[in-house]
Amino acid sequence: MTTLPIVENLCFTAHNVAADEKKFSGLTVNGLYFSDRAFATGGEDWYFTRSYSKGNGRIATTVDSMELTVYQGIVDFAISRTGIVCEFDPVTAEETRVRCLTIDYHIDDAAWADVLTQAKLVFINATYFRVRPAAPAVPLAGDGAGSSQGHRVPKHPTRR
């Protein structure tokens, strides 16, 4: 079996962004969910979750709706009003075939408040987690809306 190279920086625009907390019997799951299409319909799906049972938990990164789940392995996670940048350690980069993940999104104030609240719960006590100010949108040629789709890359070759 051929091992595909690790993508240095996988970039995409999430058209679906969700953040929530689910409670089960004795378990709480906090999550951030990003997809470039409808969730679980193909394309890029990246989820960051933490489940707590009696106050403990570890961070899970899920790629493409449960196709791959890795635990821990993040060395830097920066979130802003307009996107995230997540860098993985070498072992996790080998598993995900991605060294750095950049996701842009356009969400309203209420959604941003939900995303930020859940991000702080998912990454509670994580020394690599930081909130950064949003960079001003830079319109692409012919696009007055400031869309970031101009730097979207194709689907990672190891998936699908």
UniProtKB/TrEMBL annotation:
Region entry Disordered, spans: 140-160
Q: Which domain of life is it from?
A: Bacteria
Report the protein name in the record: Uncharacterized protein
